[in-house]
Amino acid sequence: MIPLLARKYLYRYLIVAIGLPVLARLLAFAGQSLEQRTGKDNVVSKGLKSAGRFAQRRADKSQGKKDRRSRQAVR
User: Fold this and answer.
1) How far apart are CA 39 and CA 33, in angstroms?
2) Which label site among 34, 52, 62, 73 has the fewest CB atoms less than 10 Å from its CB?
3) Using CA atoms, how far apart are residues 10 and 4, in angstroms rounded to an integer?
């Protein structure tokens, strides 16, 4: 049986490793589809796309991936 402390970290890892990237893609997709449906940017679609980018950055940071800007600057 998994000890209680290990379970807490396991659940946190699963949320960060699986849940956050999925949430980021869903938010970005919702913003993109709303923008395509209306034909122009609006406050809601901008907010959804921004939230998706933010969640993706947080997921990348928590998984130890470097920022996209810093990777481009190195090249």
Assistant:
1) 10
2) 73
3) 10
- The pair of structure tokens assigned to 36 is 């395509």
> Per this entry, what is the length of the chain?
75
Sign of CA dihedral 62, 66, 69, 70: positive
Separation of alpha carbons 37 and 32, rounded Å: 9
Nearest to 63 by CA among 5, 13, 8, 6: 13
pLDDT in tens, 22-37: 999 999 999 999 999 9
Q: Cα(52)–Cα(68) distance, rounded to whole angstroms?
A: 15
Question: What's the half-sphere exposure (Cβ side, CA atoms, 13 Å) at 19?
Answer: 7
CA–CA separation, 71 and 25 (whole Å): 21
DSSP H/E element including 22: helix 20-38
